[in-house]
Amino acid sequence: MMLHIPGVLTRDQVVECRRALDAADWVDGNVTSGAQAAQFKRNRQLPQDSQVARAIGQLIGQALAANPLFMSAALPYATVPPLFNRYEGGEHFGLHVDNAIRAVPGTGERIRTDVSTTLFFSDPEEYDGGELIVVDTYGTHEVKLPAGDMIVYPSSSLHRVEPVTRGARVASFFWTQSMVRSDWHRHMLFELDSTIQTLRAKQGDSPEVVALTSHYHNLLREWAEL
Ligand code: NI
Fold first, then answer.
1. pTM of the entire structure?
2. Is 65 exposed, middle or buried (0-12, 13-18, 19+ CB in 10 A)?
3. What residues does the ion ligand 1 have nearby, CB within 5 Å?
4. Which residues contact 97 (CB under 8 A, 6 or more apart)?
5. 108: left (phi over 0), alpha (psi -120 to 50) or beta
6. Distance, CA 97 to ligand 1 centroid (Å)?
7. Is the confidence at residue 34, as pLDDT, over 80?
8. Has residue 30 got a pLDDT over 90?
9. Residue 96 Cα, ligand 1 centroid: separation in angstroms?
10. Which of 30, 105, 128, 183 gets the highest tally of CB atoms within 10 A of its CB?
């Protein structure tokens, strides 16, 4: 399932983050790549231990925890600290797949990458090209979102970033291990939760809403791994 989550960060937060990101020292993006992806990757990233990456990463972490759509769609068990990339002057990232397992820096822990997220820090008018192209079983999807918006998609997808031919594309990206490994199960839980929320807004906690909520939790109990 791919999900566009609008307004994860406010305009003011985006402006403040961009000021810090534009002033930061960027390095070759291949610091975090596996050998195969490195052949296709031309961009820059913030070093993981950079002050700016940590500060904005914390802000993103708080925004995610407070975002009901992200929580419902990703059912996060653990998320790696956000990384940041910058593409300009023709930089791009060819079709690749992300590693299934990622180390969480400084902890000795690893997570399974179930859900990939890109949070945009550039508005679409600021740059040409730079579309995130995600290929899944339902076809090819092209993503270019307003700054502060986020796209969530299965980490199992092949994906690429088109060359940026004007301006700069600045974004954050990160991986989440979900409590529910299967993308299909997560999708069904998300749809059920959304329907329950809609019904609940219309009729309050009616006996039917309570019963459906019980079904939701029983399915989650069946499928969740902690
Ligand atoms: Ni990738």
1. 0.95
2. exposed
3. 98
4. 37, 156, 157, 158, 159
5. left
6. 6
7. no
8. no
9. 6
10. 183
Cβ–Cβ contacts within 10 Å for residue 194, how many? 14
Question: 108-165, pLDDT tens digit by residue?
Answer: 999 999 999 999 999 999 999 999 999 988 899 999 999 999 999 999 999 999 999 9
Q: Which range is least confidently modeled, 24-38, 82-96, 126-140?
A: 24-38
Closest CA to 64 of 47, 81, 48, 50: 81
pLDDT at 172 over 90: yes
**For the chain, what percent of residues have pLDDT higher than 70?**
100
Whole-angstrom distance, CA of residue 175 vs CA of residue 155: 8
In the reported structure, the alpha carbon of residue 84 is separated from the centroid of ligand 1 by a whole-number distance in angstroms of: 12
Please give the distance, rounded to the nearest whole angstrom, from the Cα atom of residue 94 to the centre of ligand 1.
9
Domains and CATH numbers, the chain: 3-178 (2.60.120.620), 183-223 (4.10.860)
Which one, of 65, 82, 79, lies nearest residue 21 by Cα? 82
**Token pair in block for residue 43:** 């961009």
Q: Which residues contact 163 (CB under 8 A, 6 or more apart)?
A: 87, 90, 91, 92, 129, 130
> How many CB atoms neighbour CB 169 within 10 A?
26
Q: What is the pLDDT of residue 137?
A: 85
- Where do runs of H (alpha helix) occur along 66-174? 68-74
| Mean confidence (pLDDT) of the chain | 96
